[in-house]
Amino acid sequence: MQKMIYRFYLLLISAVMWGLPGCGPAASHQGEKEAQKIIFAISASQGSLQYQTAEEFTRRVNEQLPPGYQIVFYGSAQLGKDKDLMQKLKLGTVHLSLPSSIMSTYAPEFGLFEMPFLIRDRTHLQQIEQQIFWPEMAASMEPKGYKVIGLWENGFRHITNNQRPILHPTDLKGIKLRTPRSNWRVDMFRVWGGNPTPMAFSEVFVALQTGVIDGQENPLTNIYAEKLHEVQAYLSLSAHVYMPSYLTVGLRKWNTLPAEVQNILFHAAQEIKPWIYQTAERQEKELIDMLQEKGMKVNAIERDAFEEASETLYQSFGESVAAGQTWIQACKMTSAP
After folding, report:
1. What confidence tens digit (pLDDT) does each residue in 82-96 have?
2. Could you tell me if 179 and 104 are in contact, meaning their C-beta atoms sit under 8 angstroms apart?
3. Quick one: which H or E segment has residue 282?
4. Helix, strand or coil, per DSSP, at residue 23
5. How confident is the model at residue 98 (pLDDT cuts 50, 70, 90)?
6. What is d(CA 268, CA 57) in angstroms, rounded to the nearest whole number?
7. Dihedral over alpha carbons 167, 226, 200, 169 (to 10 degrees)
8. Which terminus of the chain, N or C, has less C-beta within 10 A?
């Protein structure tokens, strides 16, 4: 009788253990499936070009990945802001992300794309990508624990504010203007005479609404997606910086992926670029009209005056990055009509 009771308890304990989450072969199989999910998280808001591109990339790649692999996408800072996501990439808890301005704080080489008026248009960008970015810049992130597999678009950045139209650098005097947490962007607006204030983009709307800051600078898609037209009066079409976004994988995760999956990710990151540029060009034209219809006053800037005021920034980059001066000159020569 005692042996029967003992066997009953053994069977009961075994049944409970194998049925609990994290126990038994079913849970082990579930863990394997979980490990094959590629977590793609970005901070950009729904409606922005970055968000649209990330969604399109996810759709395309999931059609190509072998059985058992799937990209799972999280946008709008659901898993954290850029700084959080960079840390999670390194730890391997997030596998793919799409940082932009923050990259120059990890590798100074990426400050090239922070230089004002250096990229003329997207054709020029593609020349710089082939001549400088892939051969010389991209690998600078690998010692930090990251692998860049795509040079995508955040966009040409423009200035908005509530004080006055910005035509000349002197018009920025006294304007408290939000920038990303990028030393180069802060220096840029300081050199131009503004009062730059680094701040997370998710905090900008309320800061503008409450008067904590007077203005900000961003691509048109970000301005419209965040409804900044509701709290900003003036849009100055400065296109002062073309800012890429960088499809980035944590190196820890990348090294665990089969070659087939790596190839799919890398090639899809290149093949999507015509779609990005076409979408960006179409939206730029549409958004200027849409922002005017929302009540924003739009003006052009005196570009020559801003370029002249930017010379010290080019010199600083050339002195702080080993190949910086060579890159600046190459960009300027390539950009000549």
Report:
1. 999 999 999 999 999
2. no
3. helix 273-293
4. coil
5. very high
6. 7
7. 0
8. C
216 within 8 A of 203, measured Cβ to Cβ: no
Q: Using an 8 Å Cβ cutoff, are 156 and 221 in contact?
A: no
Integer angstrom CA distances of residue 230 from 50, 155, 213, 254, 291? 22, 21, 14, 42, 10
213: closest CA among 226, 194, 240? 194
Q: Which residue has the tokens 């992300």?
A: 97
CA distance 250 to 95: 6
In this structure, what token pair is assigned to residue 212?
Answer: 């904590």
How many residues are listed for the chain in this entry?
337
Local structure of residue 132 (DSSP, 8 states):
I
For residues 160 and 287, the answer to whether their CB atoms sit within 8 Å is: no
Lookup: tokens for 240: 């002062």
Closest to 225 in 3D by CA, of 52, 57, 41: 52
Distance CA 296, CA 229 (A): 6
| β-pair type (176-179, 215-218) | parallel
Amino acid making up residue 108: P
**Alpha carbons 54 and 60: distance in angstroms, whole number:** 10
Question: CA 191, CA 311: separation in Å to the nearest integer?
Answer: 10
